[in-house]
């Protein structure tokens, strides 16, 4: 991609209301644009990041037996009334009347929708267990929509739902998903704590959150500095200084960002929405359900909170919009030739071919934060100056070495 053609441009000044690094750098770097409080356009750079994250999530959900689909955002009142949540979620859910006078809501979550689908299509143990997931935008009427992508009114989310006929089977899959989630975050470049938590506004059952230690976080947790154990401070039975129940290390207290959560609903929806299936011996059993969510746009923000410096973002290679930032100094044909070769070899490169100063190009490269900076200049001869975004050191290497580096 030639940067001269990229929509949009970087900004010298951060937004006035930017309180976090992610809000500041994602806006300045041209990744997102605010339409109104809590509602953002994902610009080409930002959308590439979300797609990289989504691809990692898809791979791990598919590996865990999930089947991807897409459910409606518009949802009728009647299925929400079956669970009583049309009233209990009024403050969070966008609710309105359509032109015919029917009351409708925008999807804040999809338990009712998917359970209605399951009860009409699953009748026997032969159909279970089953796990289905989707990636789509959710809508929640947040009172305090601030902090960029950290807390939005419209946001991208992956939610997977699993269905079982026994608690043992549900527990087994629930634990399997905890491990799948760990792989997702590891591949994205984040270290998470698996935190015991309350069910919050969506369920009274127990749940687990996946938290990233960060000063910009809104949650407070008690956690182990050595392993992934943690407890949300709202329900914590342990305190800072106590021994970790997993490895005996001294626990700490800190702020964190929730980047995922999972719930066990058990037979709640079976009872509320009449969802049953027959067992091998012909007995009628409730179809048990659990829910597994990852906020993709919030995950992108969390990555920036963890991976940045005073100059801008430092993207992990797995989720960076491009693998490298090719920079031409004193605009020359050699840089054009290098770019064309890299593209033909399948390299994922952003090429700064703009007619601006070297200082401006370097500042933008640091702000955007691609893993490698490649500089082509007349001083370097047939070599390319390679610098990792995470390092101050650079070296001159040949084109073949650059190709090898980018393919790793």
From TrEMBL:
GO terms for cellular component: cytosol. It catalyses: tRNA(Pro) + L-proline + ATP = L-prolyl-tRNA(Pro) + AMP + diphosphate. GO terms for biological process: prolyl-tRNA aminoacylation. The keyword Ligase applies. It is an enzyme of class 6 (ligase). Keywords: Aminoacyl-tRNA synthetase, ATP-binding, Cytoplasm, Ligase, Nucleotide-binding, Protein biosynthesis. PROSITE patterns: AA_TRNA_LIGASE_II (PS50862). Gene3D superfamilies: Anticodon-binding domain (3.40.50.800), Bira Bifunctional Protein, Domain 2 (3.30.930.10). Its EC number is 6.1.1.15. It holds the Pfam family tRNA-synt_2b. GO terms for molecular function: ATP binding; proline-tRNA ligase activity. InterPro entries: aa-tRNA-synt_IIb (IPR002314), aa-tRNA-synth_II (IPR006195), aa-tRNA-synth_II/BPL/LPL (IPR045864), Anticodon-bd (IPR004154), Anticodon-bd_dom_sf (IPR036621), Pro-tRNA-ligase_IIa (IPR002316), Pro-tRNA-synth_IIa_bac-type (IPR004500), Pro-tRNA_synthetase (IPR050062). It is found in: Cytoplasm. Residues 38-316 form the Aminoacyl-transfer RNA synthetases class-II family profile domain. It comes from the Bacteria. Homodimer. This is Proline--tRNA ligase. It comes from Candidatus Buchananbacteria bacterium RIFCSPLOWO2_01_FULL_39_33. The lineage of its organism: Bacteria, Candidatus Buchananiibacteriota.
């Amino acid at each position: 991609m030639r940067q001269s053609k990229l929509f949009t441009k970087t900004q010298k000044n951060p937004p006035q209301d930017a309180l976090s690094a992610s809000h500041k750098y994602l806006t300045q770097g041209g990744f997102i644009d605010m339409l109104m409080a809590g509602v953002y356009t994902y610009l080409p750079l930002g959308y590439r990041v979300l797609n990289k994250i989504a691809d990692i999530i898809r791979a791990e959900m598919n590996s865990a037996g999930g089947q991807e689909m897409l459910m409606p955002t518009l949802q009728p009142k009647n299925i929400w009334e079956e669970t009583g949540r049309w009233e209990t979620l009024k403050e969070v859910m966008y609710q309105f009347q359509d032109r015919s006078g029917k009351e409708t809501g925008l999807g804040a979550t999809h338990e009712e929708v998917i359970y209605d689908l399951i009860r009409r299509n699953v009748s026997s143990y032969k159909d279970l267990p089953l796990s289905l997931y989707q990636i789509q935008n959710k809508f929640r009427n947040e009172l305090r929509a601030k902090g960029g992508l950290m807390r939005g009114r419209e946001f991208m989310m992956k939610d997977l739902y699993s269905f079982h006929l026994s608690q043992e089977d549900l527990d087994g899959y629930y634990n399997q998903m905890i491990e799948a989630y760990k792989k997702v975050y590891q591949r994205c470049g984040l270290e998470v704590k698996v935190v015991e938590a309350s069910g919050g506004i969506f369920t009274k059952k127990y749940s687990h959150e996946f938290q990233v230690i960060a000063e910009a976080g809104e949650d407070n947790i008690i956690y182990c500095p050595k392993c992934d154990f943690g407890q949300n401070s709202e329900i914590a039975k342990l305190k800072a200084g106590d021994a970790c129940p997993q490895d005996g290390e001294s626990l700490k207290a800190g702020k964190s960002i929730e980047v995922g959560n999972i719930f066990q609903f058990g037979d709640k929806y079976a009872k509320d929405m009449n969802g049953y299936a027959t067992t091998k011996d012909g007995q009628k059993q409730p179809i048990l359900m659990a829910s597994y969510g990852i906020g993709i746009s919030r995950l992108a923000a969390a990555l920036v909170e963890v991976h940045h410096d005073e100059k801008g973002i430092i993207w992990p290679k797995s989720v960076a919009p491009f693998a490298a930032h090719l920079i031409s100094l004193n605009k020359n044909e050699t840089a054009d030739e290098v770019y064309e070769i890299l593209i033909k070899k399948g390299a994922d490169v952003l090429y700064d071919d703009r007619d601006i100063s070297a200082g401006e190009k370097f500042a933008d490269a640091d702000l955007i934060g691609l893993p490698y900076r490649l500089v082509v200049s007349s001083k370097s001869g047939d070599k390319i100056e390679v610098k990792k975004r995470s390092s101050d050191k650079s070296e001159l290497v040949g084109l073949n070495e650059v190709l090898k580096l980018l393919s790793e």
